[in-house]
Amino acid sequence: MMEQYGGIFTLVIMVAIMWFLLIRPAQKRQKAAKEMQTSLKRGDEVVTIGGIHGTVDAVDETSIFLRVSETTVLRFDKQAVGRVVTAS
Predict the structure, then answer these.
(1) Fewer CB within 10 Å: N-end or C-end of the chain?
(2) Interval 45-66: pLDDT, tens
(3) Residue 40: count of CB within 10 angstroms of its CB
């Protein structure tokens, strides 16, 4: 009788291991990225996922406007921000 449940038990253990090694850390990274993107504000220095460095000039619901030089402001989706270098 114990042999019948051995396969199910092994499967449950494998799913639990996958959860803790793969799925849970990915969800934490995704949550942290979302929080970073929603907390962006004017004056933050950021780097986009494409490697463009700039200072946040303005923020709306879905976009940010990065000042990359004295005269150039570029518009990006918030998801394009890879990291905040310095917060204002």
Answers:
(1) N
(2) 999 999 999 999 999 999 999 9
(3) 17
Number of separate domains in the chain: 1
C-alpha 30/C-alpha 38 separation (Å) is: 12
| Banded pLDDT at 7 (limits 50, 70, 90) | confident
Q: How many CB atoms lie within 10 A of CB 44?
A: 20
CATH, residue 35: 2.30.30
> Which residue in 33, 39, 25 sits closest to 83, CA to CA?
33
Sequence-distant (6+) residues with CB within 8 A of 79 are 37
